[in-house]
UniProtKB/TrEMBL annotation:
Gene3D superfamilies registered for this protein in UniProt: Winged helix-like DNA-binding domain superfamily/Winged helix DNA-binding domain
GO biological process: DNA-templated transcription initiation
Protein name, UniProt field: RNA polymerase sigma factor 70 region 4 type 2 domain-containing protein
GO molecular function per UniProt: DNA binding; sigma factor activity
Length: 88
């Protein structure tokens, strides 16, 4: 298991990021995706709680969260590769 994680840079790349890089990548997300990512991943809200706060149906919350996380992952992975913090 440990060898698998070490050989998979996408799973392991967060270790090389500062909180500032992560914060900036989150701030760069589109507003509606940013809010769902912050509520779910930082504030630990459930889908239901996010739906109540945002007034979006739960399915929409799930979709926005999925898209927001994917874009965040791409932004962070791009940064890590540009800075050569992981091997490609």
């Amino acid at each position: 298991m440990i060898q698998e994680e070490e050989s998979n840079p996408e799973k392991n790349f967060f270790k090389n990021l500062s909180s500032e890089h992560i914060r900036q990548a989150i701030e760069d997300l589109p507003e509606e995706w940013r809010l769902t990512v912050i509520l779910a991943d930082i504030e630990d809200y459930s889908y239901k709680e996010i739906a109540e706060v945002t007034k979006f149906p739960i399915g929409t919350v799930m979709s926005k969260l999925h898209r927001g996380r994917n874009l965040l992952r791409k932004k962070l992975l791009k940064y890590v590769k540009e800075e050569k913090l992981i091997k490609e």
